[in-house]
Structure formats: structure tokens, C-alpha cells
From TrEMBL:
Pathway this chain belongs to: Purine metabolism; AMP biosynthesis via salvage pathway; AMP from ADP: step 1/1
Segments for region (NMP): 30-59
Positions bound to AMP: 31, 36, 57-59, 85-88, 92, 161, 172
Enzyme Commission numbers on file: 2.7.4.3
Binding site for ATP: 10-15, 127, 137-138, 200
Lineage: Bacteria, Bacillati, Actinomycetota, Actinomycetes, Kitasatosporales
Main location per the UniProt record: cytoplasm
Protein name as annotated: Adenylate kinase
């Protein structure tokens, strides 16, 4: 299967992508991994991306698309892939369609992880990270430390990252609504969107997603 995974920050896309990719025996292709791999391997695309990042500029769509193209052409993606973090906007979605058409491929589904905005804020703003190198993660509601502000594992200080503050989370949500959410309508017009609730236990969301994808595949 060839799947695009979408959802707001805090929806658990990375976690679900890893489980779904394993269950479906396809590679999980995330934008973050693509950038890190290309930069660490000093590929031409990696050097180009780093030049923009070092200058404090956004990496142009065409560079991201080229990285995704290279990754999707690798042997392990021959029978499918799960894209996480790409496409991020409608222009990238259009470019992906053109790329797939050139390769005589097409998407099977766009899995939309639905989470209420207040839950997103609660999930992210409640995270606390250990300052020590281990960087263990806790949550004030879902996984509280035995002693407030102290890591259960190593005794390090727990803190809230600047980009996890409620104000920053709401800003990230606004960016998602204006830039990424429109791709859902774009793919709905193609009959590709499968929407599921991302609330509940991780394994329950994975089961929900697998069942929805199987139903969608059976309907085609």
C-alpha cells in the first residue's frame, strides 16, 4: 500500500506511522528522517538543504520533493510506503501526484488522524522532558513522575520545552490549519481520505487504522 499520513501536531503520527509501517511491511518515510539522512550523508540534496537551513530559510518544496523521490525509488519501497510529514501543503501534494504518475504509481489512501484541538494542546503542553542526556519523557496527566519535576529513571530535572508551551502549540496548530489541512480536501476530491479518531490507547488507534485501511482497500 502507498499511504500518506496526516493529522495535527500531537496526533501521534510518528508513533502510528512506525506501527502501521511494521504491520503493513512497508517503509516509514518521514520528512525529518529524510533531512537528517541526506545531511549526515552529505548528499548533494543534503548540502543544498543545509545551506538554506544554516541561513535561517525554509527549504524549498522542490528540494523536499527530490529527497522524497529518491527515497521512494529505493528497493524496499517497491511494494509501498507510508509518508509522514510529506506532503505538507497542496503544492507538494500536486507535485507528489505528478511524481507518482510519472512512475506509473498511485496512492491507495490518505489516513487522517483526527484529534480535538483542546486534546492536542493538553497532550503537547503537558509534556515534561528530563534535562539529562537520556531525555526521558513524562506527562503531567498521562504519565506523571512520582515526584513532581524529577525524572523517575535518573533523578534529573524535568522541564517543559519552549516549543511545548500552550502559546507555541496553538501557533503550530494555526500553521497546520492554514498550510497542511487543505490537503485533506484535495485528497477527498480523489476519494482517498480515510478518517479515524486518534483518541485512546496507542494500540487501539493502530487497530482502528488497520481496520479502516482494510475496509477502504476492499471498497476499491
Amino acid at each position: 500500500m502507498r499511504i500518506v499520513l496526516v493529522g495535527p501536531p500531537g496526533a501521534g503520527k510518528g508513533t502510528q506511522a512506525a506501527f502501521l509501517a511494521k504491520n503493513l511491511s512497508i517503509p516509514h518515510i518521514s520528512t525529518g528522517d529524510l533531512f537528517r539522512a541526506n545531511i549526515s550523508q552529505q548528499t548533494e540534496l543534503g548540502k543544498l538543504a543545509k545551506s538554506y537551513m544554516d541561513a535561517g530559510n525554509l527549504v524549498p518544496d522542490e528540494v523536499t520533493i527530490a529527497m522524497a523521490k529518491d527515497r521512494m525509488e529505493q528497493p524496499d519501497a517497491e511494494n509501498g510506503f507510508l509518508l509522514d510529514g510529506f506532503p505538507r501543503n497542496v503544492s507538494q501534494a500536486e507535485a507528489l501526484d505528478e511524481l507518482l504518475e510519472t512512475e506509473s504509481m498511485q496512492l491507495d489512501a490518505v489516513l487522517d488522524l483526527e484529534v480535538p484541538e483542546d486534546e492536542v494542546v493538553k497532550r503537547i503542553a503537558g509534556r515534561r522532558i528530563c534535562r539529562n542526556e537520556s531525555a526521558h519523557v513524562f506527562h503531567v496527566t498521562y504519565k506523571p513522575a512520582a515526584k513532581e519535576g524529577v525524572c523517575d529513571v535518573c533523578g534529573g530535572e524535568l522541564y517543559q520545552r519552549d516549543d511545548d508551551s500552550e502559546e507555541t502549540v496553538r501557533t503550530r496548530l494555526e500553521v497546520y490549519h492554514t498550510q497542511t489541512e487543505p490537503i485533506i480536501d484535495y485528497y477527498k476530491a480523489q476519494g482517498l481520505v480515510v478518517t479515524i479518531s486518534a483518541l485512546g490507547k496507542v494500540e487501539d488507534v493502530t487497530t482502528r487504522a488497520m481496520e479502516a485501511l482494510k475496509r477502504d482497500e476492499g471498497d476499491k
